[in-house]
Amino acid sequence: MTVRTRLLQQVFRSLRQATSRVESVSKAALEHPTVTLVACAPQQSKRMPWSCLGYGFAAASLVTVASPLEASCSPAVAAPQTAGVDLSNAGMTAGKAKLQVIFVLGGPGSGKGTQCAKLVQEFGLLHLSAGDLLRAHMKSGTPDGNMVAEMIKQGQIVPSRVTISLLEEAMLKGGKQQVLIDGFPRNEENRAAFEAQTGIEPEFVLFFNCPEAVMEKRLLGRQEGRTDDNIETIRKRFKVFMESSMPIINFYDAKGRVRKIDADRDPEDVYADVRPLVEALQSFAV
Ligand SMILES: Nc1ncnc2c1ncn2[C@@H]1O[C@H](COP(=O)(O)OP(=O)(O)O)[C@@H](O)[C@H]1O
Ligand SMILES: Nc1ccn([C@@H]2O[C@H](COP(=O)(O)OP(=O)(O)O)[C@@H](O)[C@H]2O)c(=O)n1
């Protein structure tokens, strides 16, 4: 038998296994119609318990392998024993990988995105920037998209229902166990809604501490064509950060979850403090 034939046989064997796993997902879905699957059609779901996202991941990845499959259009999915990742801390059981979320917070221009990019490059985690997701959404031309565009221009915080549903969808698509959520939660409404909806507690909060004058200079030099990187909106964003976001950092600090980083240094020096924190998490990843 040639190497090529052997490889083909392996591929077909994997496909057969994938198909039977997806069929078991489908069967479970019929037995538990209360749980919604958005793996293949996120736009059809208004609310998804995050504890189900893991099963969505499993189904989505299998669909990628063995598409098109009947299960990819199932209206609902429940928990097969074989599912891989469970996004709910509360729902963690033996044999399932636990979702690890790190909130990345700090004032506008403190360097959140810059440090997240470095972490992604080194550790391959999923980076979800709430701001990036909202900016993409504002281009949709929908009423919600237009509202987001206006709120960003004014430096205001968009209602959680919009931001959380974008995060959910991106999380599902990303399908990773370790997730950096950058720029969220930004106020008490964000925090409480996220906790109520997902039950997820962050492993820790990376807080980039930076003087306003430094952040202002960086933002004015950012040149990404953003509607909010002008001095008027920057000042509003600083105010919103102090009034609405600092209390969230204090909330997690009281729980011992904040890792405060001095962000007023060269990016490499900042990263030297950030990387060991995330590296330590890697050993817990399944
Ligand atoms: N440690 C740093 N020193 C100097 N400039 C930085 C540093 N970190 C980021 N920047 C620059 O500052 C601007 C804002 O950084 P960014 O990562 O987009 O911040 P945030 O995501 O917190 O708004 C960008 O132009 C970026 O290149
Ligand atoms: N959780 C979030 C995150 C961002 N946003 C909006 O997106 C804007 C930009 O956020 P960002 O995180 O991309 O950028 P920075 O302000 O941190 O530089 C904020 O000023 C808010 O208008 C929000 O409404 N809710």
Automatic annotation (TrEMBL):
Location relative to the cell: Cytoplasm; Nucleus
Catalyzed reactions per annotation: dCMP + ATP = dCDP + ADP; CMP + ATP = CDP + ADP; UMP + ATP = UDP + ADP
Enzyme Commission identifier(s): 2.7.4.14
Positions annotated to bind CMP: 190
This protein's UniProt keywords: ATP-binding, Cytoplasm, Kinase, Nucleotide-binding, Nucleus, Pyrimidine biosynthesis, Transferase
Main location as per UniProt: cytoplasm
Cofactor note: Binds 1 Mg(2+) ion per monomer.
Subunit note: Monomer.
Family: Belongs to the adenylate kinase family. UMP-CMP kinase subfamily.
Function: Catalyzes the phosphorylation of pyrimidine nucleoside monophosphates at the expense of ATP. Plays an important role in de novo pyrimidine nucleotide biosynthesis. Has preference for UMP and CMP as phosphate acceptors.
NCBIfam families, per database record: UMP_CMP_kin_fam
UniProt-recorded name of the protein: UMP-CMP kinase
Organism encoding this protein: Coccomyxa viridis
